[in-house]
Predict the 3D structure of the following.
Amino acid sequence: MSGHGTRARTADLTALEKVTPPAAVVFDCDGTLMDTEPCADAARRAVFARRGHVYDDAAREALVGLSVAQGGEVMAGLFGGSASRLAEELAQELLAAVSDRAQPMPGAADLVARLAARVPVAVASNGPRELLDTSLVHGGLSRWLPITVSGDDVVSPKPHPACYLAACAALGVEPGRSLAVEDSPVGARAAHAAGMTVLGVGALTRGPYVHAHVPALDDAALGHWLAAGW
């Protein structure tokens, strides 16, 4: 999961415009397709508060983009106690919050529908299976995304490339011919390590692991790219 903070003002799709359309597209879920970051913040804040700790910007930065299990380990380092129990508590809080309030990111449904009509699409997420499925169903996106890889389906979560490699294998495409869409540095690093072209979304995905960038999925430049040469 990732927070977008201040949106980047301009898109840079030069790298995508210079190559042929991808053979497949694999999306991250939390913060990319689904606006679950407020849910994640609320869940983390609740876990922190039960232990008398403040969930501040430094804590948020330490947890953004991590799997629930990784989050449990980070919190265990802060609070002490069992990492697995903290992860379970965080997962329960997240599931309740997502079920209650999660919504698709602006432009997500339109983009997924348009791409699914042209190329195979999938999701590769660090989230637990139950959370991922609940989020996509709640957001009305599951109809276009029958292939999903959750954090429970791989041994090593992002930034390891395993989930992206698994998604590409399930789609029957080479990672080097596929596009990953990510909103966090952790996820962008994973997709880059898998050998994919990486489209970063939002303010946190500028850097060496991102080939192209848009401020948001509903950015006009992304629509123009889809309309040209496909």
In short: The longest helix spans residues 83-101. Residues 1-8 have pLDDT under 50 and may be disordered. The chain has two domains: 14-35+103-227, 37-101.
